[in-house]
UniProtKB/TrEMBL annotation:
SUPFAM superfamilies: Metallo-hydrolase/oxidoreductase (SSF56281). Keywords: Hydrolase, Metal-binding, Zinc. GO terms for molecular function: hydrolase activity; metal ion binding. It comes from Dichomitus squalens (strain LYAD-421). Residues 51-281 form the Metallo-beta-lactamase domain. It comes from the Eukaryota. Its cofactor is Zn(2+). This is Metallo-hydrolase/oxidoreductase. Belongs to the metallo-beta-lactamase superfamily. InterPro entries: MBL_superfamily_lactonases, Metallo-B-lactamas, RibonucZ/Hydroxyglut_hydro.
Length: 304
């Protein structure tokens, strides 16, 4: 992908013996993305079958590993009525769950100690009980969604207990640095290898990851649901809005203005050399890489 203009920002150069992160994609379900809900100017009936990607990350020197997002659980009936309304008559399937993807690559989900959750929508939270020894890391505003979820709040889209609060860590004061176009970042390993990025706009608590993928200057940006189509990143298309049953203008992003601002920040990465931007629902990337070495136990190759 190429941006239309030179980037205004740069990412830090590697240090000597720079640690980095090996990033592997994980199969975690498929869903039908209805274009009119995401991409302005779409025609009724247009859709894309796309993945809900999750990722396995391994630190190059410590070998510490973690998971980013949990994809789609098979038992969709557990989700709140507000979610059932959204997914009704939509094709959603999980041929291979994240648990099966990990086991296929030789990793027991019980051995995962850290899960970073981009946000709490149904297609990213999977089945947290499959990770009994993990601490779950989320943005600070995700806590309120869990505490006041369904059924306490009958109209909530987030299920109480979807992520265990007792084993959750909510980030806020940790965002003490800036990197590239992003003003709020957390250097997770404190060595420049992995940054958790505050990514506002989509859903409260939404976070992304920026990881070095080799010791010489390659990066990957795991953008979660910052955008749902590459054309939104390039600026070819705009974020959709529509009128709901009550006649109110709504958007898939809870704060459209902040989401558009964040998309513009992610867009800056497109013009940077050796930077790979990957959306959680990137159908084109998935079609090109499905079943290949980019998936665990293989790894996504560094952008050269």
């Amino acid at each position: 992908m190429a941006a239309s203009s030179q980037p205004k920002f740069a990412l830090p150069e590697p240090k000597p013996d720079q640690p980095y992160i090996q990033v592997s994609a994980l199969e975690a379900g498929l869903l039908q993305l209805i274009h009119t809900r995401f991409i302005a100017g779409s025609k009724p009936g247009e859709f894309t079958m796309c993945p809900s990607l999750a990722f396995f990350l391994r630190h190059s020197t410590s070998k510490e590993h973690l998971v980013f997002d949990l994809g789609i659980r098979r038992d969709l009936a557990i989700h709140p009525p507000a979610v059932q309304k959204v997914i009704a008559n939509r094709v959603i399937t999980t041929p291979q769950s994240i648990e099966e993807s990990l086991r296929k690559g030789g990793m027991d989900p019980a051995d995962i100690k850290t899960v970073i959750v981009s946000h709490l929508h149904y297609d990213h939270i999977g089945e947290a009980s499959s990770f009994p020894n993990a601490t779950f890391i989320m943005g600070a505003d995700a806590e309120d969604l869990l505490v006041h979820g369904y059924p306490s709040n009958p109209v909530a889209e987030v299920l109480e207990g979807a992520i265990p609060l007792a084993r959750s860590r909510f980030l806020s004061s940790e965002f003490t640095t800036s990197i590239g176009p992003f003003p709020r970042a957390y250097d997770y390993f404190n060595d420049g290898s992995l940054y958790i990025i505050d990514a506002p706009g989509h859903l409260p608590g939404h976070i992304n990851l920026l990881a070095r993928t080799d010791a010489t200057g390659s990066w990957i940006y795991l953008a979660g649901d910052s955008a749902h189509d590459l054309r939104l990143l390039t600026g070819e298309r705009d974020v959709a809005t529509w009128h709901n049953d009550a006649g109110h203008l709504v958007c898939v992003h809870t704060d459209r203005e902040r989401a558009v601002e964040h998309i513009a920040r992610v867009r800056e990465l497109l013009g940077m050399p050796r930077v790979h931007v990957l959306l959680a629902h990137d159908a084109a990337w998935y079609e090109a890489n499905q079943g290949g070495n980019a998936f665990f136990p293989g790894a996504i190759p560094p952008r050269m």
